Amino acid sequence: MIIYECEDYRAMSRRAANIISAQVILKPTSVLGLATGSSPISTYGLLADWVARKDLSFAQVKTINLDEYKGLSPEHDQSYRYFMNKNFFNRIDIDMKNTHVPSGLATDLEAECRSYDALIEGLGGIDLQLLGLGRNGHIGFNEPADTFTLGTHVVDLTESTIEANKRFFASEDDVPRQAITMGVKHIMQAHRIVVIASGLSKADAVAAAFGGCLDPHVPASILQVHPNCILCADKEALSKLPDRSAVITV
Ligand code: GLP
């Protein structure tokens, strides 16, 4: 595990964008696993700027997103499909048919989960997975639980996640109570994982995930045993990490 301590959100975003661009330059047909939330917005913005400057191309890249809220259509401004189109896909040269987000409107959610797993496997797995970190240590929408769930699944969102994500909705009642998320199997099978975390609100989650034991009640803790995982975090997010031996200040 490599932990980069970056000065601030901007520097964290640049570090993550550099790693993703290197991946795409070295393997233009990469399969990228992508995340939503406020954390990756600047990373996507930088990558889009580099595409606009013709320094980078996603023309042959395929993407697979982590998750989607149940019940939200792609046109809903809080759906993750809408987020991805707005913040990334519409700003780069990717072929939209090569972008994948689970359908929150599927009538048979179990079938949607199985077909999402088949889709990931059909793509040959994920070359690089970008992850944000929930305040309760979730990754995608893999919420704290007694066991890790391997495949794509429907999840009941925890009160803490509903509370954290209500800032994006008109009211707490508007936050969907369920979501579809990729499970830990496909996340952990990614060849490389890049986790981004910024701000004091993530400090407890970072400390629990990367400074504690492997524990399904802190889903991100499983990343400690991934052979090629990089955490790009800012000083505030790393401020409670008990053991700094793996930290590289950049
Ligand atoms: C949501 C997403 C996660 C994301 C998390 C953190 O719950 N499902 O994939 O990592 O939010 O979001 P933020 O970056 O806004 O803190």
What can you tell me about this protein's structure?
This protein has 250 residues and is of the alpha/beta class. The protein has one domain (8-183): Rossmann fold (3-Layer(aba) Sandwich). It contains seven helices and eleven strands. The protein has helices spanning 9-26, 41-52, 80-87, 109-122, 159-165, 184-189, 203-211, and strands at residues 2-6, 31-34, 62-65, 67-69, 99-100, 128-131, 153-156, 178-181, 192-197, 229-234, 247-249. It has an eight-stranded parallel sheet with strand order 5-3-2-6-9-10-1-11. Helix 7 links the parallel strand 9 and strand 10 (229-234). Helix 1 crosses helix 2. The longest helix is centred in the N-terminal third of the chain and has 18 residues, at 9-26. The chain is globular. It starts with a strand and ends with a strand. It binds 2-amino-2-deoxy-6-O-phosphono-alpha-D-glucopyranose.
Q: Tell me about the biggest sheet?
A: 8 strands, parallel
Q: How many helix segments?
A: 7
Could you give the count of β-strands? 11
> What percent of residues adopt helix (DSSP H or I)?
25-40%
What's the overall geometry? globular
| Percent range for β-strand residues | 15-25%
The CATH architecture designation is 3-Layer(aba) Sandwich
Here the CATH topology equals Rossmann fold
> Which secondary-structure class do the elements indicate?
alpha/beta
State mean pLDDT (0 to 100 scale).
Answer: 97
Distance between the termini: 16 Å
Runs with pLDDT <50, length 5+?
none
CATH first level? Alpha Beta
Question: Secondary-structure element sequence?
Answer: EHEHEEHEHEEHEHEHEE
Give me the Rg, rounded: 17 Å
Bound molecules: 2-amino-2-deoxy-6-O-phosphono-alpha-D-glucopyranose
The largest sheet has its strands arranged as 5-3-2-6-9-10-1-11
Number of domain units: 1
